[in-house]
Amino acid sequence: MTVDLGLLRVEGTMFQTRTRRRLIPARLAFTAILTVGGGCSTFNGWPDPTSRREPVAPSLLQAEQRIDDLDRIMTANGTIGVKSPDVWGQDRLAKFRSEYETQMAQWLKVGFKGVINASISRNEADAKRVQLAAGLSDPTAKTTAATDDAAKSMLAALSSMGSSNSAATAAATATASPAPMERTATVLEPTVVLDEHSNYLNHLNQLRRINAGDDLTDRPGYGLYLVRIPVTLTPGPKSRRGRGAIITVSAKSLMVKDTLRYTLRNAVINETVGSLTQAICNDADKEGDPNSGPGMGPISLVAFADSEVYYGPENIVFLRKEAERQLAREFNDEPYHRSARVSEWLRGELEASYSLLEQSVAPPAVASGQSAERGDPLERIAALVVQRDFDGVAKLRQGGLGDSSVLLAGGAQASTPGDPLAVQRRKAVGLFGFALRIQAAALNARLKQDIVDQLPELKLEQLRNVNFFDPNATDDAIQLFGRYVNAKWPLRVYAIEPVIAQQNVADAVGRRSLSALDLLGGVPLGPFRAAGAFSTDRRISEDEAAIRLNPTMVGFGAGESTFGWIFYPRLQTTRTPYRSLSTAASRLIHAQLPQGDKEQSIEPGQRECTALIVMPNFIPKIEFVTVANWFRTGDLNERQASNIERSSDLASRLVEAEDVLNRVQSAGEFRPEELQIALERLNQLKSLMPTQRMVVRVPFTGDVNDSRIFCSRGGQLRPALLAWHGKPPEPGGEATIFLEGKNFSVHDTHVIAGGKPAESVLVSRNLMQVTIAKEALSTLNADGAPLMDVSVATPNGASNHLLIRMRPTQSQNAQLNTAARTPEAPKPELVGPPWPPSQTPPPPPSPDPAVVRASDAKPPADATKVQK
Prior knowledge:
By secondary structure, the protein is of the alpha+beta class. Among the domains are: about 1-50, no CATH class; about 260-365 and about 375-490, no CATH class; about 715-820, Immunoglobulin-like (Sandwich). Helices cover about 35% and strands about 25% of the residues. The chain has 19 helices and 28 strands. It is flat and about 150 Å long. The termini are far apart.
């Protein structure tokens, strides 16, 4: 055994102790005891403080020993492993939630059936018997031993007969006793049935409410995520019997540097796409999708009536022609989805042109050594848009490309016009940049006003110079946006599953009570010998049977973002106690059997734990912090170290082993894989630590966000229909199409198509499959063409009307094809005197059979005769 006071560690072959947290005097005293006491240690004297020894690099063997020590400690105490959470987005969950709602609605129609969950059966039997016997005897004769023996034999026969009769009577009584009543034969009181039915409906609706989510779940900017956290329990010798496990989780949303940039990008592009699509497709001269009215909603930044004024009517006409030129093939092949194709084309153009907007709002470059003046260049445009200063916005469109109707996003003058096609593309790109700039300015004004509403300590004047659209936003702007997001969209744990997982145990209790009294006697009565027997039996039995629910897994939640689960052992039979003196004494003192909760063993394995989390749908990451621990199920007063202290001790051992492994320099003495294996084993133990911090990426569902997310007003949950996809419906035929829109609800969504209910299947929050019935009626437009009117209603309101141009039936197509193949009737040709080319021809005379001939007829031989 060696003692090294320089390292303040005592190492021995028989034991090893850690003295990290002990005081130095205690170390010195312990070292002195080891030195003086007994020949088993050698003390080489105090080290010379002036001598300097070079630090010796630890070997790989020492590092592996420390890793093995940590492994043995964790294995003995048991581990609670928490896997990295899996996350499902709101779009994926919409289908599952819709099916759940459908199934629960069917259960609602089935109704409630009254069933008794417990039964008690009591039996009581009482029997009394009196038996008498007599025999003739000589009164003058003396009682002899033989006579006494005869009397005893008679009494014995009488007794045996009485006992047999008693058993027969008891059996007959038990047979005659009524059997316990069946559960189905019991009838509940009508009021009790109504109360139980009410509880059944309330619980059913409670489950449906949890599945549907609250109204904040559907709020713009929020997303519902299903988080699956598998927990693996591996009990050790110290935590296997009479122990349970508990895990506590806290969640927090994490923003990244580009969250602000991409959130504003999606909102501006989506708003611009909706505004320009309606303006371009609102052309009465083109036979395309019918105008279904404004679908952007009442809280759009730029009203539909203002879009033509802001962008310029000549610019709208130019974009319409540009769309027809680039989408000519699609419009000719399939003209029924004009607005959807225009929307896709606009989205691609705006995505490519967004860099121009970022260039225009970025601060100008300055020379080195000078500070750049950071301001918000969108403030002036935002003031014009908010005040609806149409003249001021029209002045902004002047300049650029030599055209007074368009302005480049950066405000720079274009080069000299060259290729006509290039000029046309520059004009389109400039117009896209200007439209993005208008929408970005309006969004910027709404964002700043909403920040002031959510953070009352701020004033609007303090945000005048904050530039949120700068691609290299300042730290102050990012932190301010983070405070705003946490205030408006706090992360909330909505539901925890399972709320309780329990084991159904058939709990039966039987009690038996038996009391009996037998009297037997014989006396001489003159010449007779008399004997009598009296017997009474009383039997009482009670049977109780019920279903006991043994909780094995219980979920809990606290606050907004803290939740967790508690794991209990499953019910098991009590093991046979040891036949020892202490066990017998304990049973005599306590007069009871061993407690079952101390005898149960928790089963190793993985538990499925899920939680529904509501958080902003544009935040890319969630941070989870987990704390796990074992606890006793029988004794609540157990003295044990706290979770944090025990975790800190294991963490210090882990850090020490990691430090030793990093300083290993003798890895060349072993296989090349040894160092890598030790590193991997250390990482495995790190994943099994009782405290964990995990950062998980979540699926993005904020691609459809628009300006509504920055509006604190209500009325944002109303559904809206934007486009449709699929084969055009035919009059009198069944058709299946997809509806694209916003705010579709998993709870109670209804679709009306052609005045008839349509069957709908929810694909996501923004997409729905609809089957139009054959009985759906068409609506004729002004030209007499049939249209299909589709609308959607949810508990939050009704949508706009989406008009679908219907396709002619096969019979109508056959008539049109026949008419196209039949040659037209020849037009009549008028014959008259010629006139000079310089003169205007006179109006044609009224048709006269004498001067009109068919085109297939032969002309007359002499035209002058005809003229005469």
